[in-house]
Amino acid sequence: MRNGNVLCPRIWWILVTIRCKFEKTVHSAVVGTWHISLPMTINDVIKEIKGNKVVFQDCFIEGFLFLLTFPFLTMPEVPGSLPLSSPPGSQLISHWDSCLPSFAIVVTNAETFQTNDSFRTWTRIRVPPNILTDDERHSVSQVNLSQDKIFFLINGTVYMKSFTAFKRLGRKENLPESGIVGITSRKWCWIKSLLKATKQISSIAIWTRNEVYLGYTSLKFVKIVTIERLRILLNISPVATLAVHNVAYTGHPLEFALLLHYCVTCNVIKKIYLLIYNEDLRHWAPQDFELVVAIDSLMIPYFLHSAAPDVILHDKHRIYYCYHNFKDTGVLQTPTEFGNLSRLSNDSIIHDVFIDYYGNIVVKMENNIMFYFKVDIRDAIKLPVWINSSIKSSFFQSTSGEVYLLNAFANGTIQPQEYPLRLEAQSVTFKAKEYCPFMAFYHNISHYIYILDKGQNLSVWVQIVYPENIGLYVIVELYGPKILQKKEHIQYEIALGYCTKTMTVTFFQTVNYEAVDDYFLLQYENMGVVLVGIGPSEYAKTCPIVPKVIQIAVGCDSKYIVVKGFNQTKCFQHDFYYIIEKSYLRHRPSENLKVKYDRKKYGCPLRLHYREKFQPLIQLYDEDSYIEDVEVNFIVWEIHGRDDYSYNNTMKMSGCLNEAQTWKSMTELNKDVPLKLVWGPENYKHCFSYAIGKPGDLDQPYEIINKSNQNHLVWPLDHRGMYVFRVKILDPNYSFCPLTAVFAIEIYGMTSRNTAGRSS
Asked: Hey, is 368 helix, strand or coil?
């Protein structure tokens, strides 16, 4: 299983020779047909049958994508409900789930339809009577779909339909009752990403002319900014007009963009500014972008699947492009009419822009004339007419990632229609004699998100093959915090008139976290998400591939540690109490301590004879997968305050040159601090240098353990007891994760001074 995102982060690769690259897969051949059983998790969405480069029955086998998920349910039709539609004469309004494009919704002039199988089947979304007026029911201007909710924008108010209700959103949800201009959600699927300053990111954005709200899965909305705050941020005079123009999520998993329009006299023109907000860092970043448009223009942005925030925008007639982090901007050109698409389509206006993960971009006019280009391209070409100009239509993606058109007819019915975009594009580019500048572009990138912890690096290779004397190369583009270093190695070959360049790129960090002034601040500064785009230096509409975009997340994900040999369930099934004698407690209280043993929290204790030494073997896991045995330093302490145990190694035996840190010395340095916080990777200093620490008694027990230092816990010889330990990784350069675990040990073998007597 691979952690990546084409349409979601988990992809199954199946070779057509049935050499399967996954475990626990069952396949069999019956009457010439292969039947394959795939293990599934809740995050699995897209699978790919990846063709080998061999001939099979005189045909080359091509890769094929298909969606296979746990079912997403459409909302049922309720008898007696009334239709919900867009205003008469308006174009189709559509939306689909970013990670499951077959789960979609469309609003026509007659009805609203929802599907979970790319409109092979569908249900009608209707509303109960007496909630909306007839005029409101036929005034849907925007729609947004999530797994269990549908949001409608009707006359400046947001309504939500769920499986059980249809209601108006307002003050109770922290939203305005009216005046809402738009709603939007994420277009690109990044299910997994690392957060370092917040607990969750938004799934929907709602805005008025003066405010922006972000919504979360719990139907909680938060006002994120007001126009007054933006006026201060941009240092704009209070006499000028400033308003929210539009909002769109970018290709970054943690960011969205805000378009503002600004004018003083506001008679003829206005200026469009763009800011990007990082939800994790809660930071606004004004971009080097300014666009002068007519005062009545509405600019609609579409952010591309790219590392930098590349975007195309359109008004009614033209497409504007911004590539390479706003360094390359302009108007999309056409062979005639200087990019005015309306003049090339019988004065129709732009209805919609379709963009997929393969870099294809189709501009559809209201009369169904279409124009085609690809990412990083600055001119468009007109596609052949496909459907009648009187039919209302909209683009969608099928379960195999292919494009199709959904047609809505005057009688209120809808019909999906396959659209061979690739063939149509090849046809027009062949006639225009356009050629891709390179012959092949290969890479070994198999994931769409890579998570790096301390000490880890990522190496990928990329290869480009092109005709001699063209001079292509590979571009590696990074977007995000400057937390990664990069090392490149290039190999160059030339043969038979073709050049082959192979680049190996390694991403890594070299930060040393040991003995720093502020350990946690240094960690925070070196964590984050970096988007990396890798692609050829030149591109064309005929090129079959697009630059590869991956997410490198630096920080702590889902790693945890366990102590090997401890069982969580195979022991007694009840809690019990035991007494710890006061003389065995660290702070020597005046009374004995009664402790409840919580089996669910502590697991099953390991029973050891009092003469049996014990060295914990710490193992690192990621979710349910074993990674490695931990070999770095760690410490343990008894969580109830016991100190009637020791270690078999002394500081001298361990090689210390100065006195090592101990629990006693660290508690004296950190008085009034809870025991679990007095010692850790943030203040660890080793004892193996004369320059660190001070001379002292090296015959003291050495209280730091690792896999190879043969340091063990040893027990008292005159009494038995129950010990509940917590282990903490001490090495500051091991992980961003605060790695701790609990284990319990029951000592037996003595017949006197029983301090672990149990009582239910």
From this structure: coil
